[in-house]
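Quick note —
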Amino acid sequence: MAKGLTAGELRVEDQEALVQKLKEAKEELFNLRFQSATGQLESHGRLRAVRREIARIYTVMRERELGIVTVEKESSDG
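Predicted structure written out below.
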């Protein structure tokens, strides 16, 4: 999972890529929580960052669902 994803970077991704990134982020969050519970977590700030990435992905998906932001496909003519 790439670190520091911005909403702008997520908006250019297609739906399948967003779902994949969401799955990866949720898996990472699970692993970080497990490490935290067992006292092995080294970077507590990463927990916050992953939660925010998940929120950004959900926000972009919801924007598309409501039609607020649409995916602009690059045209190959020109």
